[in-house]
Structures are given as C-alpha cells and as structure tokens.
C-alpha cells in the first residue's frame, strides 16, 4: 500500500458541496488524497476500498441529532481527526465536539492548510506536486465538460476513440475526479474553461 495515500471521508449530503471540497483538496497539490463520500455518519462504518480512514470531514447538521453514534465512531477511530464543515449556525456545544472547523467561506488555501496540519504526521508527501494534464488531455477535458461523447471528441480532435478513452483515464488518474460535475469544477477552477462560456 502506498504509505503516502491519505483517505478522507466526507460526510455531506450536498453533492455540489462535496464536489467543490474534493476539488479544492485535490487541486492544492494533494494528489495523494483518496476522498470518499458518505451521506450519513453510519455509512463510514463500511469498509472503504483502501482500508483505513485517516480523517473525517462532516456536516455538523448530521451529528446534531446523532451525538451517540458520533461519539461511538470517534472512539472506534481513536486518533482520527474530525473536522466540522460549517455553512450555517450551530450551537457551540456541537462544534466543540470536533477537532477542527472549516467554514464554507474559507479560502481554498485556508481549507487545505487546516487539513494538512491535521494529517501532517501521516503524510510524508506533502510537498509532492500534482501531475499536470498534458495539452491534449486538457483539450479532451474541455470537450468532456461540454458533454461530448468519446466519438464526438475523437472527430473534433481528429484522433481515435481509443486515444480519447486513454486520455480520459489519464485525466481521472491525475485529477482523482471521476464525475462530470467534479471535472467541470476542476476545469473552471484551473482556468481551463471560463464559467461564462460553459453557461452559454
């Protein structure tokens, strides 16, 4: 197992918030993060493909009526840090149950700094730079976020469908993002496409 891989569980019912947070974490030189999405606190008891969870980011709204399960999960995970993802008001007694807090209004740098600080002892590759997309992979990504099929992209770029599929695999491997919405957020946040162009 790659010792540098950090498994982060995100317990958040909103898909768009999960995708945005994942993109921020993967964008900031954190290609060694595996990020898993859960809709509720009970789900993280299930095994994840790579085994352990190193850090949990959770919406306190999911904890508020479920403190007994929350405390049980924290005890089971021993030293795993729990981070509150806050975008509305919560009572201090709920927020204090967490090891750290990130606000939805925090800058990407502040969010990743908080996460880095919590897992720095486990991560030996913090300064590892994320592999960049090649110019051709960037071209394929631009067409993907427009909703084009592999065949349409192949025709547009004058390459084979097999080559398009190969580029798609590389894009997923390098970004760690599989979903259309996640790739769109990645493309916008990396200035690969303009959000105004995408909305047209």
Automatic annotation (TrEMBL):
Keywords of the record: DNA-binding, Transcription, Transcription regulation
Stated name of the protein: HTH luxR-type domain-containing protein
Organism: Maribellus comscasis
PANTHER family with a match to the protein in the record: DNA-BINDING TRANSCRIPTIONAL ACTIVATOR DEVR_DOSR
Domain HTH luxR-type positions: 126-191
Domain of life: Bacteria
PROSITE patterns assigned to the protein according to its UniProt record, in alphabetical order: HTH_LUXR_1, HTH_LUXR_2
Biological process (GO), any one: regulation of DNA-templated transcription
Pfam families: GerE
One Gene Ontology molecular-function label: DNA binding
């Amino acid at each position: 197992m790659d010792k540098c891989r950090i498994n982060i569980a995100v317990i958040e019912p909103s898909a768009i918030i999960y995708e945005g947070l994942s993109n921020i974490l993967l964008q900031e030189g954190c290609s060694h993060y595996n990020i898993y999405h859960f809709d509720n606190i009970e789900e993280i008891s299930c095994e994840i493909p790579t085994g352990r969870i190193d850090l949990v980011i959770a919406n306190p709204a999911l904890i508020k009526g479920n403190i007994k399960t929350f405390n049980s999960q924290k005890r089971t995970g021993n030293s795993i840090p729990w981070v509150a993802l806050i975008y509305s008001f919560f009572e201090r007694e709920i927020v204090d149950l967490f090891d750290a807090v990130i606000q939805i209004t925090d800058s990407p740098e502040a969010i990743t700094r908080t996460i880095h600080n919590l897992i720095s002892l486990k991560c030996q590759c913090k300064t590892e730079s994320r592999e960049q997309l090649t110019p051709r992979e960037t071209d394929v990504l631009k067409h993907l976020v427009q909703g084009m099929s592999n065949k349409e992209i192949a025709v547009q770029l004058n390459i084979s469908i097999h080559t398009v599929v190969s580029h798609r695999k590389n894009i997923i491997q390098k970004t760690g993002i599989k979903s259309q919405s996640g790739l769109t957020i990645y493309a916008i946040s990396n200035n690969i496409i303009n959000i105004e162009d995408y909305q047209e």
